[in-house]
Design goal:
4-stranded antiparallel β-sheet, 5-stranded antiparallel β-sheet, alpha+beta, Trigger factor, domain 2, Chitinase A, domain 3, Alpha-Beta Plaits, about 20% strand, single chain
Amino acid sequence: MENNQETQNALERRIDMTVPLADIEKEVDARLKRMARSVKLPGFRPGKVPLKIVAQNYGPQARSEAIGAAVEKCFGEKIREQNLRIAGSPQIEPRESGEDGALSFSAVFEVYPEVAVGDLSGQQVERPVLTVGDAEVDKTIGVLRKQRTTFAAVERAAQEGDRVVIDFTGRKDGEVFEGGAAEDFPFVIGAGSMLKDFETAVSGMSVGESKTFDMTFPEDYHAAHLAGQTVQFEVALKVVEAPNLPEIDADFARALGVADGDVEKLRDEVRNNLEREVKRRIQARVKEQVMDALIATHPIEVPKALVEAESRQLAENARRDMEMRGMNTKDLPVDPAWFKDQAERRVRLGLIMAELVKAKDLAAKPEQIKSLVEEMAQSYEDPSELVRWYYSNPERLSQAEAVVIEDNVVEWVVSEAQTTDKEVSFDELMGNAA
């Protein structure tokens, strides 16, 4: 078998292969003889079908298999000779034979790019710094109280924080517009579920009162037919309910899972949960900067085959997610092309990180994996149960290993780059900043 390698571009390769017909015929004959030992055909006992009849019925199949095996063997030998790392599956194409008594093929494929560890000393990484204190604990408990707000009817004008029930009708050019009318509609003034101008108009109204007012929708309003339009609303207020926040007491603590109702235990749990969440968010911000730095310092080409495979996987993940939410994906096909940019970034980072792990010895150590699993388990009522759950399944444990490897890469990059610490506010880090 003769073969020849040609380079098409940076990652694409082509190998031309010539397979002697004599070798093919020999393999076809061997395959047919093996088939004859067990093949079943009407009128013959198993294993007693004449070879000529076996060839008539199974000759094309045997030839196709023989050619495929010969090409695969030839291709594999050449790949091993050249020490090539194949990305994806080769595309095998027949070509005109230049020799008598031979079949010629071309294999077109991509190889993995060579990745050299880049210089990260010029990259900037800004690491957020935040210490969880009493103020952050108090603010979080305040949020938990608001989530458990109850409402009671009052006889006064509606104000910020009240829950009101209204009937309303909206008209544009004298006609009721789509979605512009409702009865017994509840909302909390100041919660942001209604436009600010609408809330302001309702604030100050009393039960039984009606009001007509004009309102202009924002230019970027999600309903295009109303964006920037001035309409007229008629509103009748039917109920005003004042908010009642629960006291921070034993009942409140028990409602949040502290069995004995100890408020200090509640504060400790909130503090511990906050510290874990703050750590997670800081790590996420640093990680994003690290990944951008890796891409900036490693301008490599990525195999199209890997990007296409990753795009298909992301599309399949999205499809499953939509189905779990009750959506019918048959009427809404998920196109892998939608995920091309995300897939290319993921593949590029995967190739770069794999080289870093190998070059800088950043593989996950057993004690690191154990530490991560135990840390994740701390937020569970029975941490040991989650630890057993992870260690009982190799696939789950490999997921934890991948996280550790990623953390090791991030830590190494941070040590190489120009890293500065920056104090951030609690609201900014938690995404609550105005």
